[in-house]
Amino acid sequence: MGAAKTSNSKDTYMATAVAFMVIGALYLIDKLIHFSSIGLPWVMNKDNMLLYASICFLIFKRDKSIGFVLLGLWLMMNISLVMSLLGSLSGYLLPLTLLIIGIILFWIAKR
Q1: pTM of the predicted protein model
Q2: DSSP alpha helices (H): ranges in 34-110?
Q3: Under a CB-based contact definition with an 8 Å cutoff, are residues 21 and 58 in contact?
Q4: In whole angstroms, what is the distance from residue 77 CA to residue 7 CA?
Q5: Does residue 18 contact residue 36 with C-beta atoms inside 8 Å?
Q6: Could you tell me if 95 and 83 are in contact, meaning their C-beta atoms sit under 8 angstroms apart?
Q7: Rounded to an integer, what is the distance from CA 86 to the centroid of its chain?
Q8: What's in the keyword line of the UniProt record (predicted)?
């Protein structure tokens, strides 16, 4: 049990370190080339920093729960963006997708 806990801690530190490096690199690149001046203002949107961190946690951590929680928080904070991207399908597709994701996550948790 101690080895698994150590591995989990290392995964957490690695994912956190990569998230900080990615976000730091984005801020540095923005200072040099200004994403908004090249037509990419969404890259430095404060809400997207949470998305970048969730992706780092999903990629670098074995236990994906933190990544899914961060991704869920980003989704809830940007629900209007998601709905505008889906257009008229958002009335049916978004709730159905959330329901399916919830069922899958519940099934994974029960295993």
Answers
A1: 0.64
A2: 46-60, 65-77, 79-86, 90-110
A3: no
A4: 31
A5: no
A6: no
A7: 19
A8: Membrane, Transmembrane, Transmembrane helix
